Amino acid sequence: MGCVSSDPTPADDSPFRSERTERDEAPQFVLPLVARIERAAPPARTDALETAARAVLSILGDERSLGDGEWAQAMRDWQDARIRKVVRRARGAEWRRAEALPGITVTGKSAEVRVFPPVPLDGWPKDLARLQVSGTDLEDPEPPVDADLSAPVLWLNPDLGMSAGKTMAQAGHGAQLAWWELSDEERAAWRDSGFALTVRTADPARWRELTASGLPLVRDAGFTEIAPGSCTVVADHPALRS
């Protein structure tokens, strides 16, 4: 299904577009996210998606990421280049080693996701670099309830089949685009709510409406799984609705 709205960032400076831009000339960084996936008790898929999105928002709004904070320079360098996020999985001792590294753990109903300050694309800490990207296939034991439209909703493209890890990264992209569009007061209110949000797959008719609405829209650069330029997520934040 086509994408019919424009990027929320200027067309020549989108961090997600597939064509080469000035962002590609900057040193490239990646935001690592690690999902805890124990064999005996994996998280529900939708909860993992929502927890990953809240993890991205948590590090964006953390005082260590702002001003002269200890993560601020890395966050600026990352946001000046391509906005890359990679989700890896951990269990047992792997998870405990990941938790020992500087970062933020966000907990959902069944999911735990730890987000770390950006690292160079080829400079992952060894305890994160050894973690697997594959194996994040998750399921919902029951269909998710309808989204609460009074809160932010990250709508997924119904025509794309992505792994849970890839979708977690895409939900994080959508949350980040919404964050960039908000005022300081709106960001503070979202933070005070615990970054309340839901992630849902849109039905085809709603997806067509959403992509024409002017809301922030993620077009993936196509590094993994899907074609470059694919529209993956619309960030439907109440404060951004026209």
TrEMBL record:
Pfam family, one: PTH2
Catalyzed reaction equations: an N-acyl-L-alpha-aminoacyl-tRNA + H2O = an N-acyl-L-amino acid + a tRNA + H(+)
Enzyme class: hydrolase
Biased composition range(s): Basic and acidic residues: 14-26
Keywords for the protein's UniProt record, in alphabetical order: Hydrolase
Region annotated Disordered, chain positions: 1-27
Signal peptide, first to last residue: none
GO molecular function: hydrolase activity
Coiled coil: none
EC number: 3.1.1.29
Superkingdom field: Bacteria
Official protein name in the record: peptidyl-tRNA hydrolase
Organism: Streptomyces dengpaensis
